[in-house]
Every structure is written in structure tokens, then in C-alpha cells.
Amino acid sequence: MTEEPRPDGSTREQRFARADARQEREQNRPMRLAISSNRRKILRYVRLGLVLFGLYALWDIQANFDFVRLPEEGCRPIAVYEPGVTLLVSKDPSAEDLVLGDIVMFTLDSGQVSYGRLSTPPGLGAGELLADSGYWILGDNPDCPVDDSVSLGAIAPDRIVGRVLFPLRF
Hints:
This protein is an alpha+beta fold.
């Protein structure tokens, strides 16, 4: 009984020879270190902890931060930000979080949201931020007439809805 070669050109002996060579390579390969069952459990808990930490981080970002996209057209009260940039905004900042020079978002009487830079109110010493009537918020773009503390007066602390952390450029 002679075997005819397969379509790939190999005979039975050649296939057995390849199988024997493969088995010999497997036997000569260094053995992997076995992972003990305790180590496997620890690794499982570490992976579970990382997943839970990631889920908590996503929830925290969703609960405490907002992404605000500036319009492509129109004037910008803060000249640093180009049109169409997305800003990462911290929702509801406390008075301890606000520092002179921060860019904050505040609501106008009409319900619209605007933004400007915190500055020292007139009549207060340099570096002071909060007057009795509220925060003094100004736009720093002279080409853009906006509603800020020059036209509205001091902005009440409860009207500040966010503090811009940084722009996202993507």
C-alpha cells in the first residue's frame, strides 16, 4: 500500500516527522512558572479593584466635571481660547477653589452662561477676590463687548456655575 502524496506534496512519513519534531521542541522548551492558586486569587482581586477604580473615576468625572464647547463664530470674552475649543469645567466650585485670575462660568439674568476672569473688585486691596456683593469678573478681550462686571456689577457667588480647568484640543 503506497500512499500518494497529498495536494500539498507531503507524505505520511513527512507529516509524522514534522509532528515528532514539534513534540520534541515542546519538551525541550523551558517550563513556565506555575502560578499558585493564592497568587491567582490575588491577581483576580487586583484586576477587580482596577475595574472598580476605573468605574468610580468615570462616575466622578461625569458627576463633577463638564465639557463646554465654545462657539465657532462670534466674539470671545477671553482671548486665550480660540473658537471651537472644548473646555473642561469643574462644576459648582467652592469659594476655596477660586483664585484670582481663574476663568469662571457664570449665569446672566437671562439664564445664559458666560465666562470671564476673576479680578480684584474696585476699592479693594490687591489680591482680594470677594467683595460683600460678590465676585468681580471681567473679559480680557477688548474687541469683544460682553456682559461682565463692568456692565453688571459684582456677580453673586451663587451665580458661578463652574471653573475652567483647561482647554482640550482634540
